[in-house]
Amino acid sequence: MSVSRTERLLNLLIALLNTRYGLRRSELREKIYHDTSGNDVAFGRMFERDKNDLRAMGFEVETLTDLGWSEDDPATTRYRIGKEASRLPDVQLGPDEWTVLLLASRLWERAALGTAAQSALRKLQASGRLADVELPAGVQPRIKPAGQAFDDIVAAMHARHPVSFTYLAGSTGKEEERVVEPWGLGSRFGQWYLVGYDRARTAPRYFRLSRLTSAVTTLARDHYEPPAGFNIREELGRLPEMPLRTAVVDVRQGRLLALRRRALDDARQRGGGAPADGFDRLVMEYRDPEVLAEELASYGPDALAVEPAELAEAVRRRLVAAASFSDSPVPDYAFQHARARTARKGTSEDQLKRMLQLVPFLVHNQGLHIQDVAGHFGVSREELEADLRILICSGLPEGYPDDLLDIQWEDDHVFISQDLDLNRPVRFTVAEACALLTGLETLNGLPDLPGGGALESVTLKLLAAAGEEGLRAASIAGPWIAPADAATHATVRRAIEAGSQLHLTYLSPQRDAVTERDVDPLRLYSLDNTWYFEAWCHLVDGLRNFRLDRVQDVHPNGQAATRHGTSDDGVPAKLFTANDDDTTVTVQLTRQGRGLADDYYAERTAELPDGGLVADIRFGNTAWLPMFVAQHGGSARILAPAGLADAAREWLAASLDRYGG
Questions:
Q1: CA dist., res. 430 & res. 318, Å (int)
Q2: Does residue 512 come out as left (phi exceeding 0), alpha (psi in the -120 to 50 range) or beta?
């Protein structure tokens, strides 16, 4: 959306909001489009596109006709936007309700739903001031969507477009092209599933996102209608858990302590003979061969899947894909700019949505400093002033000065005296309703949730305010976020609240060793149901992150935690902490794997024609990068430094040698 189109849409919106009788196409063409749209056909297309954009933002454009006339007659057809129908109803929230709502809005770590959650929260704040609330000490639960495929499917589902992708069928082990009408996305058994109508099989089907072997393509020219009353959580509740099975894995002696911890106590010789010299044979329990295959592929030549054959083939397939990608030609690329860690690049559409939230926010928060306003909307002062300059030039077509939006900020304090009926936030979009309501539902699993019945009450209020869009929130279901080890979680949380130091016995997979250390815990956070805590580690004299399921023992050591002032108190907590001696690694990511640039806090990126990325990422420990490449099975490779790229290729070659080349 160009700036001129942004201004045109804003003026079209103001005109349609401020007419009771409605405006004809000829009037709109002359006063809003200034007859620059070309012929009648070009104008008609432009006007229909603009109406669709306004609908996508929550404004329903009504079509009115004179009695006895058809909508096909442009001379007798008028358009307007009903003010009340487009406005978000007032939602009054108490402090406890604001607390759980803030937690819910911050659940989505990144991606489109993270942007939607923050937009919905700003709409609620626009009609009144945020109550003074205190979030639980150091607790930040988060949902980690399943990569780019998640974003693409959510966008297609909300627009009701079918999607196509290549899928590895669990029943046949073959890759097949699928065309699916997406009905819902949800998390079950630690995996994200798409439920929809498979057009080739003319029946509903389940698709696990980790089995998608291509990027998702949206069929934007096609539409569908989902079944009435569809609820993804109820649908996934009928999905049986995979049966528990056993696998035989040979592991290099003295290595892979984390894998050895999970081996069965009664492991015995199996799999057609003894392991090779220098290896131990383990018997592992697993449910999903693809999940275990991803882990075993990352271990490279230190592990060999012996049986079942299905598991060994899944590991080999990942290694072949990673080796093939690593050997492919290096694409031409050029880094454009430093990359800020954001959900996605802002667009002119985002700017218009922000301006529509900005006006009611200023109405209810007169006189705020311009820097505080910019901070509230997460933009720079320059971006905010660009918004304000567009707003003060917008108003009723051919109106008088009093018919323009009137905003002043010359003394760095922003005041608005003419709002042209933009003084109430627009109703939730489907994405915004889904983000907040799914987040609230996911919080049911959070231990010691504050506010007692606040979760239920704020959910009911938002459902009532969201209307039909709220009902469509049943198309997304988040994961269960309760920590697997509640006792460890409680110990760390109490230490954070009390400011106590902890003594920790910890298994580090990267070092492949168990260490003991004293730490000052700072905060707990999760990615789905995998919980971490951020702490100052006295062993390395630096900030580190520890996974709770790798903690073998933790208890207070009787010392008070010291304040180091090095932790970033923002949201979200970073899984990886940059240091001055880190190595900058240039990584190529496919369209499927481009989300890794956000996961690892890429400093700059370059877009590729196929939808992939080249990213510069800083790593403190580069020894595990071959594991990183193998784990992602053809979605990531190392371009530079050359030594690390060569090490990854050698690792993959040695790994494939164990599977017969």
A1: 37
A2: left
